[in-house]
């Protein structure tokens, strides 16, 4: 297995660093998006666990998307299971029918619609 995929302590970000980096994100996008800046994404842990188990994944990878290429407020965050070789699992066979089905998921609830406005990261 690739050393990058071995289990280890997740990278922790100091609170002050996280506050500064989220402020950087908002400040660079505010001229383009105004008050519609997407501040983050809520991802239910049970969804990630279910997908990882369903696809026997070693991890998950997230991609940032725009559903409308002309509207920054249409940002979304899709996730895909990743195999032990660090490859995205983008589809699989659907049982007996052998039809290819997507394994790409949009589970996110973007903030500002689903937020903690009291968080210093908001």
Defining key terms:
122 residues, 2 helices, 25% strand
Helix content: 10-25%
In total, the number of domains comes to 1
Structural class: alpha+beta
Helical stretch tally: 2
Give the rounded overall mean pLDDT.
84
Radius of gyration: 17 Å
Following the backbone from N to C, one meets helices and strands in this order, namely: HEHEEEEE
The unreliable regions are: none
The biggest beta sheet reads: 2 strands, antiparallel
- Secondary structure: number of strands: 6
In terms of DSSP E residues, the strand content is: 15-25%
Placed side by side, the strands forming the largest sheet appear as 1-6
Amino-to-carboxy terminus distance: 38 Å
Q: TL;DR?
A:
The protein is α+β, with helices and mostly antiparallel strands and 122 residues long.
List the helices and strands and how they pair.
Elements: H1 15-33, E1 40-42, H2 45-54, E2 59-66, E3 75-82, E4 91-94, E5 99-102, E6 109-111
Antiparallel strand pairs: 1-6, 2-3, 4-5
Account of the 3D structure:
This protein has about 120 residues and is α+β, with helices and mostly antiparallel strands. It has one domain (about 35-120). The protein contains two helices and six strands. It has helices spanning about 15-35, 45-55; strands at about 40, 60-65, 75-80, 90-95, 100, 110. Strands 1-6 form a two-stranded antiparallel sheet. Strand 2 and strand 3 (about 75-80) form a beta hairpin. The protein is globular, with a radius of gyration of 17 Å. The model has no long low-confidence stretch (mean pLDDT about 85).
């Amino acid at each position: 297995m690739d050393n990058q995929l071995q289990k280890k302590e997740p990278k922790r970000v100091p609170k002050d660093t996280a506050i500064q980096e989220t402020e950087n994100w908002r400040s660079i996008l505010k001229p383009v998006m105004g008050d519609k800046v997407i501040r983050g994404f809520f991802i239910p842990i049970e969804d990630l666990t279910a997908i990882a188990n369903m696809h026997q994944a070693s991890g998950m990878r997230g991609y940032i998307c725009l559903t409308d290429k002309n509207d920054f407020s249409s940002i979304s965050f899709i996730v895909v299971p990743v195999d032990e070789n660090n490859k995205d699992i983008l589809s699989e066979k659907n049982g007996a029918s052998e039809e290819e089905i997507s394994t790409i998921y949009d589970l996110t609830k973007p903030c500002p619609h689903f937020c903690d406005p009291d968080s210093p990261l908001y």
